[in-house]
Amino acid sequence: MAACNSSLLVACELQDSNTSSLSVVRYTTMPIHLRILLAAVMTGMVVISFLGNAIVCLIVYQKPAMRSAINLLLATLAFSDIMLSLLCMPFTAVSIITVDWQFGVYFCKISAMLYWFFVLEGVSILLIISVDRFLIIVQRQDKLNPYRAKIMITVSWLLSFCISFPSVVGSTVVDVPTRAPQCVLGYTESPADRAYAVLLVVAVFFIPFSVMLYSYLCILNTVRRNAVRIHNHADSLCLSQVSKLGLMGLQRPQQMNVDMSFKTRAFTTILILFIGFSICWLPHTVVSLLSVFSHRFYYSPSFYVISTCVLWLSYLKTVFNPIIYCWRIKKFREACMEFMPKTFKILPKVPGRTRRRIRPSTIYVCSEHQSAV
């Protein structure tokens, strides 16, 4: 009798010299019209993700003034999203239509490795940005310069590759569709495979989510406390202190709020990216863990539909990021308008915001009180 690995095959044919039988694990797929619609939407997502993130990379590459540390990190995040959309999403779209994997078992493992590789890189960049915002606003330490940013970007690429590469060379169970629209971690009882699956989801979601959540809670508390301090003590600033800050005089204390408003807005942009990351990746993380540890869930009839939905949601993040950049960051929005042909510039020009007068690391001192804005 021939043995069959149930973690890799949906249907296993068991034969001996006298009898043969076919054991089929049935699952529920989406109707053909819904699959075609979803594949068409994913194709549109590939186009939007590529164009939007490519513009972000071009802006940073072509404009030396935009090559700050934070913009280098955002460009790296955009590049990882481009690679994810080009090297993974098209194959998923084809598999959604055909309900089958047409590209071979070996490329299945490569596809899974690339998926985790680019996702890990994007998450690493978000983690670096959140820690940088925490140091600037909470600890009053602006240590990240372009040189250090490049070093951290290089380290993040190497670390992401080291974590994702075992899935293509080791014995890790990577399931070949038709059970899912993309090669995913399959159910296994091997302690080593389960440990690796836990390592992946912890590195992709739980550690970054915990660190970013703590950072942003501290930042929110600091911004709230600084707002109260500046409001209570703006009128009592002595003239000598105001003149050292380069302000116009006591009659215009609202200038201090300009820098605080800028930094609060910049932090809000990063916070929106964090919220988008959480919404897009929490369902995928839960489904990945259940797939590896729960035989009942992995072989349930609804697994295909559930995995399709969470994969689509995880890919949505690649479209989400460039839209947020153009919505929230004025320089990126203006640069996007420069790349856009004149015939498509139908939107009215947005009035510019008040320019910053104070460095982000400025510490406002009022008597015995301090606040880092």
UniProtKB/TrEMBL annotation:
<feature type="transmembrane region" description="Helical">
    <location>
        <begin position="266"/>
        <end position="284"/>
    </location>
</feature>
<dbReference type="GO" id="GO:0004930">
    <property type="term" value="F:G protein-coupled receptor activity"/>
</dbReference>
<keyword id="KW-0472">Membrane</keyword>
<protein>
    <submittedName>
        <fullName>G-protein coupled receptor 45</fullName>
    </submittedName>
</protein>
<keyword id="KW-1133">Transmembrane helix</keyword>
<dbReference type="InterPro" id="IPR017452">
    <property type="entry name" value="GPCR_Rhodpsn_7TM"/>
</dbReference>
<feature type="transmembrane region" description="Helical">
    <location>
        <begin position="103"/>
        <end position="130"/>
    </location>
</feature>
<dbReference type="GO" id="GO:0005886">
    <property type="term" value="C:plasma membrane"/>
</dbReference>
<feature type="transmembrane region" description="Helical">
    <location>
        <begin position="36"/>
        <end position="61"/>
    </location>
</feature>
<dbReference type="InterPro" id="IPR000276">
    <property type="entry name" value="GPCR_Rhodpsn"/>
</dbReference>
<keyword id="KW-0807">Transducer</keyword>
<keyword id="KW-0297">G-protein coupled receptor</keyword>
<feature type="transmembrane region" description="Helical">
    <location>
        <begin position="194"/>
        <end position="219"/>
    </location>
</feature>
<keyword id="KW-0812">Transmembrane</keyword>
<dbReference type="InterPro" id="IPR051880">
    <property type="entry name" value="GPC_Orphan_Receptors"/>
</dbReference>
<keyword id="KW-0675">Receptor</keyword>
<keyword id="KW-1003">Cell membrane</keyword>
<feature type="transmembrane region" description="Helical">
    <location>
        <begin position="73"/>
        <end position="97"/>
    </location>
</feature>
<keyword id="KW-0325">Glycoprotein</keyword>
<dbReference type="Pfam" id="PF00001">
    <property type="entry name" value="7tm_1"/>
</dbReference>
<feature type="domain" description="G-protein coupled receptors family 1 profile">
    <location>
        <begin position="52"/>
        <end position="325"/>
    </location>
</feature>
<feature type="transmembrane region" description="Helical">
    <location>
        <begin position="151"/>
        <end position="174"/>
    </location>
</feature>
<feature type="transmembrane region" description="Helical">
    <location>
        <begin position="304"/>
        <end position="327"/>
    </location>
</feature>
